[in-house]
Amino acid sequence: MNNPLRYSPEAIRELCQTHPLLDELIALNPVSWFNPERQPAEQALAMVGLTAEDVQDASLRLTRFAAYFKVAFPETAVSQGYLDSPIKAIPQMQQALESRYQQSLPGELWLKMDNLLPISGSIKARGGIYEVLQHAEKLALKAGLLQRSDNYAQFNSEPFRQLFSQYRIAVGSTGNLGLSIGIIGAKLGFQTSVHMSADAQPWKKDLLRAQGVEVIEYESDYSAAVAQGRLEASEDAHCHFVDDENSVQLFLGYAVAAERLKVQFEQAGITIDRANPLFVYLPCGVGGGPGGVAFGLKLIFGDAVHCIFAEPTHSPCMLLGVYSGLHDHVSVQDLGINNITTADGLAVGRSSGFVARLMSPMLDGFYTLSDEEMLTLLGLLAEQENIHLEPSALAGMPGPWRVVQDEGYLQRLGLTPERLAKAHHLVWATGGGMVPKAVMDNYLAQAAKLT
Ligand SMILES: *Cc1c(COP(=O)(O)O)cnc(C)c1O
């Protein structure tokens, strides 16, 4: 079982005495919390137990696999077999938000468009696919089919599919991780099982089944789907379980994003340093994706980067875990919060303990926003910039305004008006590339109703 600990209502009441923000979380009010435990990058990184070499190793592995992607997924040929996404300034959206939040934003608003990542159209194409590749490489090396210096295009051949067909890959998911792992797993020839939580969208299940992936559906939420998947996998020696709550491999796959981002900023002629700070706003579910990206960013940009996580008011598991210091020992359900949100990628009631511990010293802040806000922003971005994202991917959008409205935080970190004027605010658009048109039209209709 994932974590049998349950906080009683009395224990929660006591916790609220020392942690007054919890009352706001319970009331489902949008909150911002800037982290007093934040440490300089060097200290925060020293606690991770992973290094720049580990990220480099992951990056080199992805480079070896570029030859495979070019042949197995021809849509990656334009990016030479790399799985990456562009960055883009969104000045019209910035203006629209300045008037929505009635405050002008010093600096520039940018979007990291992981919705355009090849293969699965979400940030999960980074970590999820990476972990499957790492596993496949290990099996192929062990079977004597491969040397590291070989051309990895041969992963797209019958002997490799034959080998992998003797193995199973399993994962528990709210949808997008299952999509990424199901698609790459099936393509390589693995038997693949995806344990889907109740909130997973029907179209994601249909798409996976069409690829020959076994989809197991649950009535319950994400944590239960993961726990059941983990249990079944543990009984099968030939099954590799991608453990979204604990996986170092996933984390490293996500972390690779940062080195590419550095190059993209350089190519755009943008300097990032202490005088020209970078703020990055990351939607957070269980924490592996945004946590891995934040780790990578800190390695590359150090104290010049400020990372902030965004969560739905109905699923604030990471804010709860870090703010209370209880990490994965507490769930939003313990607070009577239902973990039901239209942002299905973020519908997680209990954070990854592994990630929560690492984020305590690393992150500048956390905030929550309502489903209505995410949907409204979805409509606004479509209208202003003609960019279509899934609701989860909008969570980062209000972040810059939360930052500039918190005087105490700005002072504490020495974020003077001069530095803020030179800031870049990067909203991580974590998904939406595969949303069917009918589903997107429905989101847009809901957004239209709200405005
Ligand atoms: C999974 C996901 C996230 C968050 O990633 P975690 O690793 O669960 O924290 C954010 N946005 C989208 C669209 C996702 O699918």
From TrEMBL:
Domain called Tryptophan synthase beta chain-like PALP: residue spans: 101-400
Superkingdom assignment: Bacteria
Enzyme Commission code: 4.3.1.18
Cofactor: pyridoxal 5'-phosphate
InterPro entries hit by this protein: D_Ser_am_lyase, Ser/Thr_Dehydratase, Ser/Thr_deHydtase_PyrdxlP-BS, TrpB-like_PALP, TrpB-like_PALP_sf
Keywords: Lyase, Pyridoxal phosphate
List of residues that carry N6-(pyridoxal phosphate)lysine: 124
Catalyzed chemical reaction(s): D-serine = pyruvate + NH4(+)
Protein name per Swiss-Prot or TrEMBL: Probable D-serine dehydratase
PANTHER family (UniProt xref): D-SERINE DEHYDRATASE, THREONINE DEHYDRATASE, MITOCHONDRIAL-RELATED
GO molecular function: D-serine ammonia-lyase activity; hydro-lyase activity; pyridoxal phosphate binding
Biological-process GO terms, alphabetical: D-serine catabolic process; isoleucine biosynthetic process
Family to which this protein belongs: Belongs to the serine/threonine dehydratase family. DsdA subfamily.
Coiled-coil residues: none
Enzyme class: lyase
Originating species: Oceanisphaera avium
